[in-house]
Amino acid sequence: MVQRITHAVTPHSHDTAGKTDTALETSSRGMRVLAVSFAVLMVTAAVQAVIVAASGSVALLGDTLHNLADALTAVPLAIAFSLGRRAATRRYTYGYGRAEDLAGIVIVALIAVSAALAGYEAVTRLLDPQEIRAVGWVAGAALIGFAGNEWVARYRIKVGKEIGSAALVADGLHARTDGFTSLAVLLGAGGAALGLPLADPVVGLLITVAICFVLRDAAREIYRRLMDAVDPALVDAAERILTSVNGVRRVGSVRLRWIGHALHAEVEILVPHDMSVITAHGVAVEAEHRLIHELPRLRAATVHTDPDGPADADHHATLTTHRPH
After folding, report:
1. What angle do CA 194, 198, 204 make, to 5 degrees?
2. Residue 257's beta-bridge partner residues?
3. Each residue's pLDDT tens digit, 4-26
4. Which of 87, 83, 259, 282 is closest to 164 using CA atoms?
5. pLDDT tens for residues 168-187?
6. Domains in the chain, start-ordered, CATH in brackets?
7. 229 vs 66, higher pLDDT
8. Pairing status of strand 250-259 against strand 13-14
9. What is the DSSP string of 168-201?
């Protein structure tokens, strides 16, 4: 009985060892993705650099630099994943998971720079077309660049969605923009082989437009994460889970937010007003337990219990003036 009463006055915040292990595993998966993609892109850039030296292709040089920059975006993300493993402190009470969002801002900025550079190079070549030597080798290098970037993009986006990392998804989209740049080099080389020197800059401008669309998607993803947006379907699922808990009459507010690639929840449930404190606490604990184990990637939940009734009672009257309207 003493243990039950003691537990009744503790906050209803539930963070299981299993969820902690899962969080560490998702960070480990993220680090593996970064390591593998870094290696693939560095090899791709190295192969292209050799062909740049032999062909003198300015377009391929730009593509090589883009691939090198894309590989280096793994650095801020790796730092973010490492920081995310650190324990919460009295200053950073929610931990360091939001470092991923800061890394996402850096990645969006790099996509914007890629778009600007691609556009600049396309306009420059449009005004002053350049002859390309060893067209076949340039085309081969462009294919290697496109294949490497697209493979990395799919890998990053897939794992990023699975572990809930918006920054890793944005980094995958960044890799895809560099793949588009490689495709522009390939099409430009094909045009040069057909005696159409303006094909390279024209295609480059079209690819710049495509990169801008990718930039929009990545920026929107990071903006929503910074603004604590979540998929409304997650809120619906949380409400269904809470409603199914025995003893819960109604569900009040449900707030979800991403901290890194883990979800945190703050919810309100209403229970019968004549229910004992210990029984109401048991309902809250069960609600926490169900949420954490049934809502994907939810690491911690705080459940606030309110009495439902009597009809003429206002249990929050003293807080009315302190709540936003």
Report:
1. 110
2. 264
3. 433 333 444 444 444 444 555 67
4. 259
5. 888 888 888 778 778 777 77
6. 17-226 (1.20.1510.10), 230-322 (3.30.70.1350)
7. 229
8. unpaired
9. HHHHHHHHHHHHHHHHHHHHHHHHHHTT-TTHHH
